[in-house]
Structure formats: C-alpha cells, structure tokens
Amino acid sequence: MSATTFAWIALALPLLGTLVIALGYRSLPGRSAGWIGTATVSLAFAAAIGALVSLQNHAPAHRQLTSTLWSYAVTVGVDARASILVDPLSVFMLLVVSGVSALIHLYSISYMGSDRGFARYFSYLNFFVFSMLLLVLAGNFLLLIVGWAFVGTASYLLISFWYRRTTATHAGIKAFVINVAGDAGLVLGTYFIFKHTGTLDFLRAFHATGAGAFGGGSDNGDLVAGCVLLLVGAFAKSAQIPLHTWLPDAMEGPTPVSALIHAATMVTAGVYLIARMHPLFERAPAAQDVGAVIGAATLLVAGTAALAQVDLKRVIAYSTMSQIGYMIMGVSVGAYAAGLFHLMTHAFFKALLFMAAGSIIGALAGAQSLERMGGFRRGLPFTYASFLIGGLALAGVPPFSGFFSKDEILLVTGERGGWHWALYALGYIGALLTAVYTFRMVFRAFHRDPVPEARELERGHLHHADVPRNPITGEEEDADVGFPGPRHAIAERAPPMRAAMTLLALGSIGAGLVQIPHVDFVVDDFLRPSFVDSSLYVTHTRDWMLVMGLALGTALGLAGIAIAWRVWVLRPATAARLRARARPLYELFAHAWYFDELIEALVVGPATAAGRFARDTFDRRVVDEALVGGTTALIRAGSAAVRAAQSGFVRYYAALLMLGVTGVGFYFLLQS
Amino acid sequence: MSIAWYLAVSAIVFTLGALGVIARRNPLVVLLCLELMLNGANLALIAFSRLWGNGDGQILALVVMTVAACEVCIGLGMIVAINRRRLPIDVDELRELQG
Prior knowledge:
The complex is a heterodimer. Chain A has helices at 3-24, 32-56, 88-111, 118-137, 141-159, 166-197, 202-210, 221-238, 246-249, 255-264, 269-276, 278-281, 285-307, 312-332, 336-363, 381-395, 401-415, 420-446, 452-458, 495-510, 522-527, 543-570, 573-581, 583-590, 595-645, 650-671, and strands at 65-75, 78-86, 515-516, 520-521. By secondary structure, chain A is mainly α. Chain A folds into two domains: 3-590, no CATH class; 607-671, no CATH class. In chain A, helix 15 runs antiparallel to helix 20 (495-510). Chain A starts with a helix and ends with a helix. The longest helix of chain B is centred in the last third of the chain and has 29 residues, at 56-84. Chain B has one domain (3-84): Helix Hairpins (Orthogonal Bundle), CATH 1.10.287. Chain B is built from three helices and no strands. Chain B is an all-alpha fold. The relative contact order of chain B is 0.14. Helices cover 77% and strands 0% of the residues of chain B. The chains are: A mainly alpha, B mainly alpha. The interface between A and B is medium-sized, with 13 and 14 residues.
C-alpha cells in the first residue's frame, strides 16, 4: 500500500471509533467503549508506522505525496479538494499524535473508569484524534481550517466535559471564544495567500510563492499580513501571548484531556502550522520576527507565572505554554527540526507529567492544590519515579530527552546572530526557571512531611472523600453524570495507567537519543525532504557554541534543581520569606502578569458594555419599542378605524353603498 | 311623449325604493323596496329600448327580473329562517357582523 493509503486509514479509524461509540454506547457493556477507542487509535498509530515505512521507500526528492479523495469545488479560480499531503513533516506529526493519543486513551480507561460519562468521553476523545490528524494531514488550506476548527470544538467539549461544574463550562467557553478568534486569523491569513497565489493547495501555493506570486523581494506587505494572521491562529491554538489565558483555565477538564490536548498535541498545532508554512514565512522575515519575539516573551512570562501557582495542574499548564514558547521561537527563527524535535520530546514528558499529576490527584480524591500535597514519595513510588523522569526531562538534565531538544533550539537561535542573542539569553533564563518550578512541584508533592492522605496510602488505603468537591471553589458535588465519578484511580493500582506511563517514561528518557550532536541526526535527516526549499534549515553550527550550549543547559538545569531543593526542602521557610520580601513581584507572577485582568479590561469589559448598551438601549428602545412597537401600533390604529365602520347595521351599509354609487355617478357626470 | 317623463317616473320609483331600503326596519318591507328599485331601473331600460328601437334593453330587463326573482327567493327564505329561530323581525337587531 502507498503512504497516502496508510494516511487515509489512519484518518478514518478514529472517526470510525467516534461513530461506533457515539451511536452504539447503549449496547457497549462495561468499559468496552474505552477499549474500542484505544484500539482505533492504536491501529491509527500502526497505520502511521505503515505510512512511515512506505514513505521511506521513496527517494528523498519524491517524499511529498498528495492524494485526493474527491473534489469539493473545483472551478475557475478555486480548487477545494479533500486532499491530504503526506510528507515527512505530516508523517512525523501523525506518529507523535497517534502514538501519544493511544497511550492517553489507555490511561483514560482506568482514570475515567467510574465516570458516568465514560462512553461520551471516549467518543469525544476519538473525535479529537480524528480532528488533529485531519489538521496535520490536510493538503490544502480548506481542510487545514476544517481540522483547526474541529480541534477547537473537541477541546471545548472536553474542557467542559464535567458540564455541571460551572467553572468547567466557563473555562470551555473561554477556550472556545479565544480559539475562534484564532480561527478567524487563520481564515483571513488564508485569504491573503489565496488572493496572490490563486490556489488553496499547499504545494502549489508554496510553488507560486517561490515563483514570485508576492513579488521578487521579501517582506511583501500582503505576505507579511497573511503570515501575521496565520500567526494569530497559531498563537490562539498554542496559547501564546496575548491569546494564552484560556490554557490555564482549560485545566478544568479531566487530567488525561489536559495531557493529550493541552500539553501533547493540540497546543502544538501552532508550531506545526509555522513549520508547514515555512516557504511563506521565510519570505516574510518580519512575521518570523513577530513569532520569535512572542515565543520568547511567552516562555518567560509563563515560566515566571509557573513559579507562583498553587494548583498543580496550572503549574504544568504554564510550563506547557513556556515550552511551546520555545518551539514557536524555534520554528520562527528557522530551527524547524529542533522545534519539531522538541515538540516530540515535550509530548512525551509533558503527557507523562500530567499522567503522574493525575495519579496524585487521584490519591487526594480530586484535590489539586500543592498546599494539600506533600510526602507522597513512599505512598506513590511509581508515580514519583514517573514524575521525576518527566521533571528531569522538562528541566533539561542530560541525558533525558528535553536536554537535547531544548538546547538545539537555542543553539540554532544563537547561530542566527544579531539580536537573536537576546532570545538566546532569554531562552537560558527560561531554562533555569523551568528547572526551578518543575522541582518545586516535585519537592512539594513528594518530599517533606507526608500529608494524612499520603500516610493512609503508605498503610495501603486509598483516601476517599466523603463528599466530592470542586477542587477550585470547594463547592459540594455528587458523583452523577456531569461530575467526576465516585472512584479515583492511582497509577500504582491501575495496570492500564501504569502501562501508558511506563511507555511514556521510556520515551522521555530515550527520545533525545535520536538526535545527539555529532552522533546522529535522525530527526534532521527524516524531516529534510519537507524543508528542501528552505534556506534556513539546519545551518552550520560552530562547535564552541554547541559545547557552550550543552554545558550551560546542564548547569542551569542542575542549578535550578539545587535552588528548588534549597528553597522548598532544606529551608522550607525561605519561600514565605521571599514572598514577603518581594510582594509585588510575587503578586505579578501569581496573577500571571495580570493578563487575565488586562484582557478583561481591554476586551471583555468594553464588549460587555457594548452588549449591554445594545440590549438595553438599542434592542429594547429602538428595535422593540420603535420598530416593532411602532408597526403594531400603526396597524392597530388603522384596523380600529376600519373596524369602527363595521357597525353591523344593514341599512347603514345600504346607505353607504348608495352614497358611494351616487358619488361615483356624480363624479363621472361632472367629468363629462 | 318625451323620454324625460319615463325617466322621471323611473327615478321616482327608484328613489322611493332606495329610501325604503334605508328607512324601513322590517326585512320584508326592505325586500319589497329592493324590488321597487329594480323595477325603477327596468323602467328606464325599457324606455331607452323604445327610444333606440332595438330589443337589447328589453332583454336586459328580463334578466333583471330573473335576478330579482332569485333574490326574492333567497330573501324570503332568510326571513322564514329568521322567523323560525324566533329572532326579531328587524334588520337593526340582526347585527352580528359588527366589527
């Protein structure tokens, strides 16, 4: 079979799973919905491997295959086809997405086991995988937009999965609205590109761009506008400043959803978009600079915000934003392979961190606050090991995977020279922050004195809350549909969770080894055919830069861990003292640089005021009273006048008739 | 004899009928007065027919008589129906059509 056939199969399987689970949930006994979902996504992963093998059989120059299922609308000037593009980049994404998704499906079977919405959950999750695969396989802008919007919908459905929690539904709405703002950017950006290239197809649009559709030079105005609008879409989906505020709130969704959508796959769509559109971006260096600066700003803002959060999942969410900041910065400065490599390793270790966090949350019967955690080292040994592996990979300690990928992004950034040195420096400051906040979580959750739940667990008894509560607001809940199920799962007692986490831990440890400087270049070489037209792909790096970067990364990672150890383990009072001494700074970080408040004041407030004005003044006064009320009053007055003539007296009618006829007669007499 | 006399009689008969229709409240009398109006018109038709010397007007008068017969049929039928339902024999009392 050809690579495109495999890709179509990979795309069809999750859709099939969605339909089977959604339509047949009544007749699916027990946890079979979860197993069906896991099986379809695992088979999709197998198909992705098939596509990989099949693609590698082609010569490197012929590894960009398109396949059209049918033509949607092909007329003069429009070529909208249901076509996919299978090249190393999309196969790479296909592998990462379907692989991580399969493991998270497996994890969810246990984690969501007692939830009343079990089948609904898996049909949503399969729908998400379908949408994401559609996004990465799309061969033209039309399917890309469809996949992009589907992914946003799936994210909305899963964030507000526990739909009786008002906090969750609000978070879902927020995420959806911001994502739709991004969708609008993507559509408008597509318009600019379509206007000049005259085609929706990726390869043709890139070819037309190369042939001068936007003029010979770089930084054509329309191209920069189009690329910046594409960036708006990427920023909204990838939670970059200033469209990032939905991601911390999205942690209201079930933890596996956070692992899959809001860490490993969906939020990296922006990185994929920029990498996919590189022939456009390379001709619009201004747009590239916007991406690089925003990525660097995000990694710093999110990294500092993560230092001051008390909700475990929110810390990981800010960490995700920060890591995606690295990737966005990387693909914007031309470090495509490094950015995508980091995307892959990040998918592994961040999904692993979320899964381990889910296990701690399970041990605390749903509580997520770091204040409630402590000393789970002996109670949750497997979770501790997983979290530690994920944390070391995130902090960039060699030889874990994050070490190689993060340093490679920064290496390429530094090689660009000029003002990119500032980004390089910010990246390393971010690396230090990463290590500090990661090990803040590790030490606060697993070290120090065990909390009562941890002691209970050491004696072999899993804590169970008498009354389930909302972890954010503390409101009482029940365990019926629309709220989390009654039983919580920990990895130590759930083999599917343990299996998924083991595989991801192996990935977190080993994935970095595929691309070691001066040793092997698997990712570089594999992706090269997709970037054959790029002038920036894998620039030559100097050895002293490489050594300095690796040494700096190691040193900063270890230093961050040491700082965290000093502040949160050796002298636990230090944190409070620092907080008291630098109160404004702490408040700034705890409120995540006040972006929520800023957006509230700049966008939400005026929009609400405008809406209230429209409702109270325009709608009620002008539309209801003047237009609708005026029309009815007019008709009522007119009909009252006509009704008054209908007296019911036959003689009166006869007299009127005669009077009328006489009047008409007189009129004609006088006329003649 | 001038046509004017015929027309004068016709007009008088018609006007009497019209006044009767408007002034009287007994439906039977109203019907009679309607007949008067029709006959006033018939007279005028026949007079003109004689004046021009062709039969068209007379045929039209026959048609009017036929229509009048039909109308009386229905009118009397209605009066009988009103009477049977013990309703007042007075057109002013029958005013369900008031808007």
